[in-house]
Task: structure prediction
Amino acid sequence: MITLIKRRGSYYFLAVSLATLYLYSQSANITTSVFSIAVTFAMPLALAAMVGIMCERTGIVNIGIEGTLLLSSFVAFYVAIAAKSILIGFVAAMATGVAMSLLLALMSVTWKMDQIIAGTILNILATGLTSFFYIQGNMLPSMFKQKPIPGLSNLPFFGDVLFKHGLLMYLGFVVIITLYYGLFHTPWGLRTRAVGEHPSSADTAGVSVSRMRYVNVAVAGAIGGLCGSYLVLELVGSWNRGFTAGKGFTALALMIFGRWNPMGALAAAMFFGLAQAGANQLMINGTVNIPPQFVGILPYVMTIIVLAISAGKVRPPAAEGQPYEKGQS
Amino acid sequence: MSALLEITGISKQYPGVLANDNISLTVSAGEVVALLGENGAGKSTLLKAVFGLVKPDTGEIKIGGEPIIFGDTAGIIARGVGMVHQHFQLVPVMTVAENIILGDEPKSGLFINMKAARAEIIALSKRYGLEVDPDAVIEDLPVGMQQRVEILKALRKDVKLLILDEPTAVLTPQEIDELLGVIRNLANSGVGIVLITHKLHEVMAVADRVVVLRGGKLIGTTSPKETDEAGLAQMMVGRSVVLQVNRTEAKRGGVVLEVKGLQVRDDRKILSVKGVDLSLHKGEILGIAGVEGNGQREFVEAICGMRHREAGEVIINGVATKDMHPHGAHEAGISHIPEDREKHGLVSSYSIADNLILNQFDQEPFAKGWIRNLGEISKNAISMVEKFDIRTPSAFNTAGSLSGGNKQKVVVARELSEDLPVLIAAQPTRGVDVGSIEFIHNQLLSARDKGAAVLLVSAELDEILSLSDRIAVMSGGKIVAIVDSKGADRNYIGRLMAGLDK
Result:
């Protein structure tokens, strides 16, 4: 099974690489700029998927990612304005993400509530709060600026695509890579996966199921805060109602498509980012002449198609969504 | 000898059941204490309390003189307590090594040192003579092998007290002998052992002391020197139990079920039933003996329409049944006591009453057209609970709340309620206490006497020998011999099961 995924993954990788190489040979500038934009589209989706992976690997279904992103991006924006510091805005957004997560953990771990309902509560809470307190016409004091990494940014193609971004983008890559190694190569990861697959095994091995779940869901919230900050403080620079536009739900699809693996989800997010950036480029070129709204739907349509194709073949963590009762096996 | 484990006055109340009623018990270093009792007698609850997994209402548990704290399983493990759980505590999608090191992983820097883990596990398995492959994934392993992993996991730390909760329920006779040997060696090296089991001959073979629980109470303490199997059985159920079944001569009729050239693949797509012909007559019990994993399970599932038949036919009263059609098999006249009662026998979250009519839920009197007749359903449930001695506070509790033996009684009650011409009973008394075993055996015999054709599949040779009229031995996916049970030679059958004689 794993070898099959790996083999399939490398086929995709090969196909994408070849296509890229061909396009690059046709027009180096356009290809580089499309990829560079694709990365900025992909990062928020990938980070939001990391929130889902952190939670579900530990056995908690989090459909409140959208709410977490919405509220933390909102907080990032207005705190940065009030404090006249985007750094303070960023920290406040992380704290908001953690707070949302702790609420989820309280409902689903301590109160053993239905986790779909708990996640829905987060979404409703975020929509309500942000709509109520939204004030038009504010401006950020500044944004996280592009900081090319010396040396690496001079690489052909990759330099522009990967190493000419802002601080939060780089932080995002660090988080994803750390999460990948953490999940599959450290004691913490082993315990997390055990808790998500078969919690009583972990419990009888002396691993506290509820502590693992609380900690992991909280860290997931912090990642959600990073994602919200990236969107508002580095990518867009403004905030309006419904700002996150369903990214938290798309992320759930990417998480499934990436088989609950951080690298898989990153690849899936890149795929979506490329689709969007490519479609934009086609419109700019005038190659296709369709209303921009249709291009705007493209990622969502692809979510549906991809999920329909991959559904049924995936295997989520066995214990997700189930509250753990001690002593029951 | 100092007391390793001291349990004083433990009580635990569950909704509707007093699982432990003021139980006191001590275990010393180097002794094997067998904890004996019917299903639901409170053994597992007591030992989970020792492991910090269940919080007792009253009483105190001391390990090595120090009281334990509820929930501090890691601390209890660190004090040298190992537990082999009845339901394996293994993560199915992870490897043997990952499962064994979980909770105390060897590290190099921040990362898990898998190389050290592998070396440690290989050394551990050599030391106890329990061979495992550290890189095998648990869900791909047979149960016997999973049990080994579970035991190695418990033995990994320097264990002073080892608790085994029904460790032999799923093992073959050879594996059981091996395990009992391991237990004896551990005890000789000074480990205190608590063993829960239903199998009386294991108790007689390995225990120094036997503690009997019944209905949550400690009934008495004895030793294999002072009593015999019949005596132990009597203590467990509070009355004398006939271990030998009184079986009258079969009144054998015509052929009811005929299997022709049946071939079936197992979950790994390997041909595991390799052409079986068998005919089952009215009014007889045909026992299928064999070491588990020789195709019995796939054979039964193919007959019952639960598994695809690669080739061959299953004919009931002259009519061929359809492949992969469990409902059709039932319509054709097969009732089935499945091997895995949790998975195929019951819907745990449904009430006992609903589970008792799962095979007839859409038929009169339990339903009229689209409407269920709840009055009839509960009337049926109450009478079944009474008749089959299902021990539960009420027929409307969930089936999942019952103990193993009582769950099985629900399945048996349901499957016998229709008086169908064919009864297939797969491992009908697995993990079931002595009192329930006797009861289920008598039910099978009375079904036979009423004219049913009974196919009994069991890994327990004694069960096959005492119930069957004819015995078919299955080995390597084939029926290697069919013998009359009258005067059947146990050793000969054992050799056939092992695939030695042809």
